[in-house]
Amino acid sequence: MENSSVNQKIINGLERISKAFRVLLWEKSKLYKISPIQIQLLIFCNTHKKEDLKVSFLATEFDLTKATISDSIKVLLKKELLTKVINVKDSRSFTVQLTKKGKEIVEKTSDFTTVLNQSIDFLSEPEKGIFLKQLMQLIYQLNQREVISTQRMCLTCYYYKKDGNQHYCNLMEKPLKNIDLRIDCDEHQILQN
Length: 193
Prior knowledge:
- By secondary structure, this protein is of the alpha+beta class.
- The protein contains seven helices and five strands; from the N terminus they run ααααββαααβββ.
- The strands form two sheets. It has a three-stranded antiparallel sheet, with no helix packed on it.
- 15% of the residues are buried.
């Protein structure tokens, strides 16, 4: 019973952090008259490879349906925050990219996590590393239970190895400290079971 109580406290804590994230995102959303998911899509487009910016990839990334992502993209195209880039080999396929106006919105909205960053800064570097590692383990477990989609993080990567408490990246050919672990890696290769 005591373990269940501790689990519930952790769940309650995660819910409160999630609430803070939603509140901060909604504040920016109201300012610029676009939805929270649209802000997240714009920020994602600014920080990820162009070839990943397809409806199917975005749907998987955000754990939403293709229809929901398509609707958000249509709005962002109409508001001229995104533009379509048609695939020359298949005219039905396209990626999206930020327009100048879209980049301006990203600059104005991507700081919505500032308060969270300031709160995390109260942790020491070793505490941040432990927290990151534990957070990744929780995300990994949720992924394994198919609650959330594949994550591009070290724990699910082909290149990642762990020997005891030591993390190692075979791609970079170097050991990793907890704070070096990546939760969103462009070089991620899915670990095949």
